[in-house]
Amino acid sequence: MKWIEAKVVFDPNDNEFTVDLISDIFYEFGLKGVVIETPDDGSVEDWAEDAKPGVNYYAVSGYFPSNDNANKKCHILENELARLKEELNISTTVAYQEIDEEDWSESWKAYFWPEKISDTFVVKPTWREYTPKNDEIIIEIDPGMAFGTGTHPTTSLCVNMIEKYIRQGDSVLDVGTGSGILMVASAKLGAGVIHGIDNDLVAVEIAEKNLLLNNIDTLKFNVVKGDLIGAVHQKHNMVVSNILADVIIGLLENLKEVLAKNGMFICSGFTVDSKDRVEEKIKEQGFTIIDSEVKESWVAIVGKLIAAESRKSR
């Protein structure tokens, strides 16, 4: 299979802010991961001999299939970059190249290193060595093409919330599971049963692979292809979803069908601009918001489905 690499080189006036803005454009395409390049500061030598050679520019690259929709996505990307120039005076240039999946897979490895995403968890690519410190828990991952590496702020937010609210033996459902990191984290934190659902068959296969890489018992997990919760037929103690705000708002319409009373709903994947809309929908569906957190303008919200009898007794 062939893929389009869209590399956006930008003027580094505010590096982190610009990276977030450009990354958001790619995430709107449904991509779950981007490549970020910054000028070499010399620290790469401390990692390994196979580290990617340094560059002298700032860039964000996204990858999408070379199919009938590729030209449309390129056009949308260029329009969004023009908007950044007009509204925020952010100068960018974009270059495209078609690459084979095998070539991309090998190139991607040079960018991906172990990274601590919470007080407890370290995400480690399978091809890197890392010795855990203190009580760190390792999540082994091989992300595959265009699926998240687990280092995005929303993943970190979700993992932190799962760690905070999960109970031993809980059943957990991950909606939009991607590379399966939230499923792995839930299992390692003591979940009894972990279910995942994604509308992309490749994501389902990658999630299953990553669960097996982390030695999660096959009797404890199940990953299926489906649209939101349409293929789910049992209730869970916790539902997590790291997807777009509009998708979460749609998911909330039927969430009670798969969430047990007093169950927890953890959601992220959106910025502070959408926080009020999501919170309003959560409350409208009968949830009590018990927690929220912001990281680098990204948001995670936790809602609890309080049982009717519990509310009466208060």
State the distance separating the first and last CA atoms: 58 Å
The CATH class designation of the largest domain is Alpha Beta
CATH evolutionary superfamily of the largest domain: Vaccinia Virus protein VP39
User: What form results from the Cα inertia axes?
Assistant: globular
Which bin fits the share of residues in helices?
Answer: 25-40%
| Tally of DSSP helical segments | 9
Strand content: 25-35%
Low-confidence stretches: 41-52, 309-314
Overall pLDDT metric? 84
Give a structural overview.
With 314 residues, the protein is an alpha/beta fold. It has 2 domains: 108 residues, 2-Layer Sandwich (Alpha-Beta Plaits), CATH 3.30.70.260; 198 residues, 3-Layer(aba) Sandwich (Rossmann fold), CATH 3.40.50. It is built from 9 helices and 14 strands. The strands form 3 sheets. The protein has a 7-stranded mixed beta sheet with strand order 10-9-8-11-12-14-13, sandwiched between helices. Helix 5 links the parallel strand 8 and strand 9. Helix 4 runs parallel beside helix 5 and helix 7 runs parallel beside helix 8. 38% of the residues are buried. The C terminus is likely disordered.
Supply database-style keywords.
Alpha-Beta Plaits; 7-stranded mixed β-sheet; Rossmann fold; alpha/beta; single chain; 314 residues; 2 domains
Walk me through the topology.
Layout: E1 2-10, H1 15-28, E2 35-37, E3 58-65, H2 70-88, E4 92-100, H3 101-109, E5 115-116, E6 121-125, E7 137-141, H4 153-165, E8 171-175, H5 181-188, E9 193-198, H6 201-213, E10 221-225, E11 236-242, H7 245-252, E12 259-271, H8 275-284, E13 288-295, E14 298-304, H9 308-312
Parallel strand pairs: 6-7, 8-9, 8-11, 9-10, 11-12
Antiparallel strand pairs: 1-3, 1-4, 2-3, 5-6, 12-14, 13-14
